[in-house]
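Section: protein folds

Sequence with per-residue tokens
===
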Amino acid sequence: MTATRPRVLAIAEAANPEWVSVPLVGWSMASALRAHADVHIVTQTRNRDAFLRAGLIEGQDFTAIDSEAVAAPLYRLASLLRMGEGKGWTMVTAISALAYPYFERQVWRQFGARIKAGEFDIVHRITPLSPTIASSLAPKVAAAGVPFVLGPLNGGVPWPKGFDSERRREREWLSYIRDAYRLNPAHRRMLRAASLILAGSRHTASEIPARHQHKVRLLPENGIDPSRFNLTAAQSPDGPLRGCFLGRLVPYKGPDMLLTAAAPLLRDGRLVLDIVGEGPMRGALEALAAELGVTEAVRFHGKLPHHEVQQVLVQAHLLTFPSIREFGGGVVLEAMALGVVPLVVDYAGPADLVTPETGRMIPLGTRPEIIAALARQLEALAQDRTPLVPMAAAARRRVTESFTWDNKAAQLVEMYRALMVPT
């Protein structure tokens, strides 16, 4: 008989409530599951103190695995090979793939006997999110007769044509041979052994071989904690149109394209722009703003603590975010949760989140085409912002109905139960 609350061993090597990006995703999903299932989280020792500060009890709620003997030197190697802070993410992932097997061996050493003894109904590897990193746990868990859940997997979005210079500036040399991961027999064994494969995007779902597609379910990696994003944008009809860019200041996120497209409106006072984030382009962007004559209309906030981000974002009418290679698009959901309408490129992660009712999307094209399309959208909304009010309301509804962490956890538990039904 299926238990009311599934007993879940949640593997989240990267999970930290005090960090952002993948560690915050890992933490948010694993901790949200605790309201719907009996969950024991297994994470890496670097996250231990943050777990304790969050009120979790070591041994009862979580176990911290010390894999630093392998992880630490490889992390230092990855930092050297990426050739710049915030660059070379494909290289970082590749080096992580070398360190991760040692972590899983330690997990099996501590939990293998308990898995074989039937103490868990489900084993779910939440992080790493990268679809390229194989799991040696998957076939062992499957051999023990316990369903193994993988994901949400996300990443590997192809670089669009015409953006090779951005690719080189990001030091993404390894991305040219990324597909070599498919040749790894451990990766094929993982997919065979998994009972359920969660894909964080339509692109990643399409990368799963056809013979495993019956096990694939779409579940975007990002979600919203309503306690963190609990304000509502006014969408005021008065004053200039307000845009906000939120993200790392790196080439593929397109902040320079945004400044160029917005320059005429910024100069004549019909648009003001907040830029929240830090990165290697900061100096060049400030110089570009001066060259375009828009310095007075653009405010660079730098990197803000996560809890302060919504204070700036909620003042905007639009999230102006022309990224051309976004895997998940967490900032898009954050804006939608606040009733800030996203203006994004119709490609990859954001395209899975934004609908015609909840935001505006511009076609993926060359740099000049994106800049021109972005300028047209901004000009139209500066002239008439009335469409923003219903879109903002629809965006908030969409997030509330489908993208809170609690909602996603409830969806996951229903998937677990389906796997637990005797066949």
Summary: The chain has a mean pLDDT of 90. The radius of gyration is 22 Å.
